[in-house]
């Protein structure tokens, strides 16, 4: 077991959705000796940090320079959670994605391993590409063909870690469709829960893509949706557990349709569903996934017996306890 209370915990992307959720849960466990790294920019991502307790903050670019030039100045770091990345699936600057998602991860991994630190990093379900099946981690990495440059940038490090013999020593997490509070900064990359919530407030209607495949009805495309609180629970379990090395799918293991997801948002707002189906842009049709589902057998075999929050309950908690009152993780009423 890895004792996260021994030494400082470095969390990159600590102001993002999963990163801030991780810090939130560490705080709930009484852990505050945390160094957060992120790129706060000119937006309001900083609001995700406001309710959280941590020892220090550093901008992501400064962190990389520190690691390369004077790593001892970072203090006694015992564990590294590398959750920061460029996550836009429509990003076309390949050089930027290679630098930010691949080279940065390599530097952090070698920093962690050189100091015998536990290294846990975010890969992505996007590495699987167009495979439409329950996806096990045992699929040979060299056979995977991601559909976008974001997925490929994540796949690059998975392959590098495999070739370099790092995978048995680190924890790589293939997150599926994670949603929850603390997404406001993500713009168009926000989950459909956030987008639907906003559309319902503004127009009373949610817009979904039509299907361009006869076996899927409009809105019947299926995804593996996972609440951020469940994603964080799995992340911490694997980081602490001796059996948590290698690549792991982080999903619910149960696909749902967009209509089911949006219906849950309407019900959380006590409204009747009203959905408008619109044409999918041509530029997306060749890269659009109609079915994703995580096989989580490996996660369960490692000993993770957490009960995944049912989609209806997860959406209700997100909408009623966070989106409607405008709260962030850490702003919960005392009884939550």
Polypeptide structure, described:
With 336 residues, the chain is α/β, with parallel strands linked by helices. It has a domain at 8-181 and 225-255 and 292-311: NAD(P)-binding Rossmann-like Domain (Rossmann fold, 3-Layer(aba) Sandwich), CATH 3.40.50. Helix content is 35%, strand content 17%. It contains ten helices and 15 strands. The chain has a seven-stranded parallel beta sheet with strand order 3-2-1-4-5-7-12, sandwiched between helices. A two-stranded parallel sheet has the order 6-15. Strands 8-11 form a two-stranded parallel ribbon. The model has no long low-confidence stretch (mean pLDDT 93).
Describe what is shown at a glance.
This protein is α/β, with parallel strands linked by helices and 336 residues long. The protein is 35% helix and 17% strand.
Question: What brief labels describe this structure?
Answer:
single chain, 336 residues, alpha/beta, Rossmann fold, seven-stranded parallel beta sheet, two-stranded parallel ribbon, 15 strands
């Amino acid at each position: 077991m890895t004792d996260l209370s021994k030494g400082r915990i470095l969390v990159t992307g600590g102001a993002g959705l999963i990163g801030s959720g991780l810090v939130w849960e560490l705080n709930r466990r009484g852990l505050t000796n945390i160094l957060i790294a992120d790129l706060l920019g000119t937006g309001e991502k900083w609001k995700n940090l406001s309710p959280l307790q941590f020892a220090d903050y550093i901008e992501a670019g400064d962190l990389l320079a520190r690691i390369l030039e004077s790593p001892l100045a970072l203090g006694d770091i015992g564990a590294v959670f590398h959750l920061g990345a460029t996550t836009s699936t429509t990003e076309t600057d390949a050089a930027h994605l290679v630098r930010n998602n691949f080279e940065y991860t390599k530097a952090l991994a070698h920093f962690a391993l050189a100091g015998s630190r536990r290294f846990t990093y975010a890969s992505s379900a996007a590495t699987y590409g167009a495979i439409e099946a329950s996806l096990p981690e045992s699929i040979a990495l060299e056979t995977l063909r991601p559909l976008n440059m974001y997925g490929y940038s994540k796949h690059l490090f998975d392959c590098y870690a495999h070739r370099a013999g790092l995978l048995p020593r680190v924890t790589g997490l293939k997150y599926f469709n994670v949603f929850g509070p603390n997404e406001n900064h993500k713009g168009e990359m926000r989950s459909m829960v956030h987008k639907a919530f906003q559309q319902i407030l503004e127009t009373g209607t949610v817009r979904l893509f039509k299907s361009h495949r006869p076996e899927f009805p409009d809105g019947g495309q299926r995804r593996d949706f996972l609440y951020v609180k469940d994603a964080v629970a799995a992340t911490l379990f694997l980081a602490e557990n001796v059996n948590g090395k290698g690549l792991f799918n982080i999903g619910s293991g149960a696909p749902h349709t967009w209509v089911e997801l949006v219906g849950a948002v309407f019900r959380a707002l006590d409204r009747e569903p009203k959905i408008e189906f619109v044409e999918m842009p041509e530029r997306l049709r060749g890269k659009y996934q109609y079915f994703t589902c995580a096989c989580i057998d490996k996660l369960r075999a490692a000993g993770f017996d957490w009960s995944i929050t049912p989609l209806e309950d997860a959406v209700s908690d997100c909408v009623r306890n966070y989106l409607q009152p405008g709260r962030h993780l850490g702003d919960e009423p005392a009884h939550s």
